[in-house]
Each structure stands twice: as C-alpha cells, then as structure tokens.
Write a structure and sequence with these properties.
The chain is α+β, with helices and mostly antiparallel strands and 476 residues long. It has two domains: 7-28 and 271-475, no CATH class; 104-268, no CATH class. Helix content is 42%, strand content 14%. It is built from 16 helices and eleven strands. The chain has helices at 7-27, 111-124, 196-204, 230-246, 248-252, 271-287, 295-312, 319-323, 333-348, 352-357, 359-370, 383-402, 414-417, 425-440, 444-449, 451-462, and strands at residues 34-35, 50-56, 84-90, 130-135, 140-145, 151-157, 165-166, 172-178, 184-192, 220-225, 263-268. A five-stranded antiparallel sheet has the order 4-5-6-8-9, sandwiched between helices. The radius of gyration is 29 Å and the shape is elongated. The protein starts with 6 loop residues before the first helix and ends in a 14-residue tail after the last helix. The relative contact order is 0.10. Bound molecules: iron/sulfur cluster. The site of iron/sulfur cluster has 10 residues, from helix 11, helix 15 and helix 16.
Length: 476
C-alpha cells in the first residue's frame, strides 16, 4: 500500500490520468484492424502522346480523344452538374504505339507466381479437379473443373499480393475456395507471423467456419471476432475483403455482378460485456480498501485471475497493446477497458496488474510460494543487474518493433502457456518456466525478461514519491 501522496505526486497522477483520457479520446474507441498506406503499383506510360482534354458535354470539346460518344451518353449522371469531363487526348504519334507491361517480371502476375498458386490450390484441397490459371488485371485466380470439364469454383490467395492489412504481427497470408455460385467454401490460413497460440485460438473457436457459405457479392457481412485474438481474427476478415477486391476483375466473369462492395467485418460478440465485467471485478477487488484482503484472500484472487484471464479468456495485456494505437490500430472496447484499467493501476496503485492481476505472474508467484524447498540459495544476478538487463531488453524490443521487426512482437509466453498445445515447443518452455524455473528462482521471467513489467513498473515509479518503497515483481 502506498502512503498519502504529497500534492505534487497527486498532481502528477492526475496529469497522467488526463493525458491517458486525452489519448483515448484522440485515438478513438472504434475497433479496426491496421492498414498501411496503399502502395500503388505504377506502370510508366508514355505521356508524349497524350494530353489532358477537357470535355464539355453541352458545347462539344473540340479535342479528339479517340472516343465516340454513344447515344444518351450526355444523359449519363456522371455528365451532369457542370457537364465537364477530363480524358486523355490522343496526340499524333509518329508510329502506332501501345502500353506494354511485362507480366513475366511482375511478382503478382508472373509465370512463377502462377505456378506457385496452382501448387497451393492443390496442396490445400488435393482432388482430381483440373486446375487452370485465369489472370486478372491485378491477380491470378485458379479455376477448378471436374473431369467432365464442369466448372467447380475458384481458388485465390493473397500470397503474391502486397497486402496493406496487418494482424498482431504483420500481414496474414490466406487462401479462399469459392464454389460454382461464388460462395465461400473454405478459408485457409497459409502463413503469418501471428503468435501460434492466437492462431490456434482462432481455429479452436471455429472462426474459419463463419465464412463458409458467405456469397462474394455486393454485401457487407459480419462475423464474430475471437475474444483474446481479436486483431488476428479481424485481420483475417479484412485480408479476405482486400483479396476479393484485388480479384474483382476475373471474379466478375464468374459472378452475376462484380463483387464491388464485398466486405467481411469481424466484431466481438456481446460476450465481451460479461468478460469486461469479470475483468473489472478483478481490478475493483484489488483496489477496494473497505474489506482488507488477507494473504489467503490474495491467493484466491490470484487463482481467480488465472482462471478468468488465463484459462477462460487467454487474454494477456502486453506492452504491444500500448503501442498499437501508434501503429494506427484502434482497439476494441474490451482491449481499451483492459488498457485503461492496467494504466490506472500503474498510475494510482503502483502497478496493480503485475502485483495482482497478470495470470502469468500469478502462476509464477503461486509456484514459488508452494515449492519453497526448491529455491536456489545462490543466483549470480542481483536485483539491480536483472532490472538493468530487463530495461535493456525492453528498449531493444521496442526500438526493433518500431523499426519494423514485427516478429519481435511474439516475445511473450503468456498466450502459449494458456494455449495448452502440448505439441508446441513454446508451450513446453512456458510450462517449464512456470513449474520449475519459478520454483528455483522466483518470478525470473518477470524480473529479468518481461518488457510489459518493465514498462508498467517504470510508469508506476514515475508516479510514486521517492520516499515510498514498493515491492514489485522486480524486487521479490
Ligand atoms: S512482469 Fe510481466 S509476466 Fe510478470 S506480472 Fe508483470 S506483466 Fe505479468
């Protein structure tokens, strides 16, 4: 417990709270996946033989564009208003010319890209169908025909596409099979840098099945995002939307109408409200001073945190959540509440999250308390040295992530531990760290390796009078 802070420290805390509120309002509460600025692919044209030409639909333009106005064209809505249009006017050319794009060098439309696409189409659904490439303006798709030559649908993926959609840790490569009517039969995850446990969570929640039967049409469709893997599920939906838009031109040949407004949006189901109340309850229990909790009560509280946030939701707060808004990601309502509670806990209560809420920390704490006999009597690193190493690691990770090393975001064992995938090396490592290493050296991960703990402890220290000493994870 902290003592009554002097006025200056109180002001500091209020200031931090106001900054937090202003940042939240600034970033907004609307949930969306991250998109980078579109990277246009520009094919150079020869401007020497074209010049802008202002067309006047009412009086005639007086310039030759090479186009012939069809009957009724001037009634077209696009010609209304001022009745002007801008087209390229053909200039006399010394010889016939055209624009040529060498598709062999285009990473999206090249022969190599087509061959790889065929291989993926077959690999994920090996059957006796005949596969044929159908190039479009921006993307090649694969047409699937049965042995009688009947059209059986399409396969397309975004592997060659330069995607602007980002999940938790970069772009997600996905493929989609369409049936003869243009409905989604199957969405497949091909490759990404997402934390494996998030991907498993998405799969275990049956997220991919939500897409089955959706028509690739003009409508916007909504699917439930997976709580605890919201960014990954949103990015999958947004990636599919982007893929269909890129394949609009060949798809239009197969569908009744081009899929111009097709979109899939993944939003959290209303379950998040119940989850939010549970999360709020954990923080309120830790913050309230009316009924002081005994040591046994705190252990029960720790078990509750493990049960709710670890086993039930597998939803960790990490320093990455703090960075997401700066990457252009606006957080879901649940993630925003999580972030607000964690930061308020660091500003006003000396890091409530690390002390009482974080299931990964609580699991280490419980094991260290339960298995005191295994504790090493000597450990070469002092608290101070471990703290310095943790600071250095945190700095390197943050700078690396900001510099574009997205894979570094995966430096986090929490989701792997509560993912319970016994075939995963990360799960086994996390389990070993909790069950054995925590007993040998209590809270080793927290004290030496956890960047989230470093960020929150630093914030808590900045808010705390120098005279007040608090035992944090780093000082067990
Ligand atoms: S230091 Fe990291 S793992 Fe430990 S309690 Fe804090 S956030 Fe959790």
């Amino acid at each position: 417990m902290i003592g009554r802070p002097r006025a200056v420290w109180l002001w500091r805390r209020w200031l931090a709270t106001v900054v937090l509120a202003a940042a939240l309002i600034g970033f907004g509460l609307q949930a969306t996946e991250r998109r980078e600025d579109p990277r246009p692919r520009i094919h150079l044209a020869d401007p020497a033989h074209q010049a802008p030409c202002l067309l006047d639909a009412r009086e005639g333009s007086g310039c030759d564009t090479g186009f012939i106005a069809a009957h009724g064209m001037t009634e077209d809505p696009t010609w209304r208003g001022d009745g002007y249009g801008l087209l390229g006017q053909s200039l006399p050319a010394p010889a016939p010319f055209g624009l040529a794009v060498d598709a062999r060098n285009d990473p999206v439309l090249s022969d190599a890209a087509g061959a790889a696409l065929l291989a993926r189409a077959h690999a994920h659904e090996p059957d006796a169908y005949r596969l044929e490439l159908r190039p479009g303006a921006q993307l090649i798709v694969v047409e699937r025909r049965d042995l009688q030559g009947r059209y059986r649908g399409l396969y397309l993926d975004n592997v060659a596409l330069e995607s602007s959609v980002r999940g938790f840790a970069g772009p997600i490569k996905l493929g989609v099979y369409l049936d003869e009517q243009g409905r989604i039969r199957r969405l497949v995850h091909l490759d990404s840098r997402e934390t494996p446990s998030y991907l498993r969570q998405v799969e275990a929640a049956g997220f991919y099945a939500h897409f089955s039967g959706l028509p690739v049409d003009r409508a916007e469709h909504r699917v439930d995002a997976v709580s605890g893997a919201t960014l990954t599920s949103r990015a999958l939906a947004a990636g599919l939307t982007e893929l269909v838009a890129a394949a609009e031109e060949p798809l239009g040949d197969y569908l009744a109408a081009p899929p111009r407004s097709f979109a899939v949006v993944a939003r959290l189901s209303r379950d998040w409200i119940g989850h939010a109340l549970l999360l709020l309850g954990l923080f309120v229990l830790a913050w309230q001073r009316r009924w002081p909790l005994s040591g046994a009560d705190w252990r029960l509280h720790g078990l509750l945190a493990i049960g709710v946030l670890g086993l039930m939701l597998n939803d960790a707060f990490t320093y990455i959540t703090l960075m997401q808004p700066f990457f252009g990601v606006t957080l879901s309502a649940f993630a925003t509440l999580y972030l607000v509670l964690v930061l308020l806990g660091a500003i006003w209560d000396d890091n409530t999250y690390c002390q009482h809420i974080c299931p990964f920390g609580q699991a280490q704490r419980l094991v260290a308390r339960w298995d005191r006999g295994s504790r090493l009597s000597r450990w070469p690193l002092s608290h101070r040295r471990m703290r310095q190493l943790r600071q250095l690691l945190t700095l390197v990770l943050i700078v690396g992530i900001l510099a574009g090393f997205e894979r570094w975001r995966g430096f986090e064992l929490f989701p792997d531990l509560f993912g319970f995938d016994s075939g995963s090396l990360w799960f086994l490592l996390a389990l070993f760290l909790i069950l054995r290493v925590s007993a040998w050296i209590p809270m080793l991960w927290c004290r030496l390796l956890c960047p989230t703990g470093e960020v929150l402890d630093t914030l808590a220290r900045l808010m705390r009078p120098h005279s007040v000493r608090i035992k944090t994870c780093n000082e067990q």
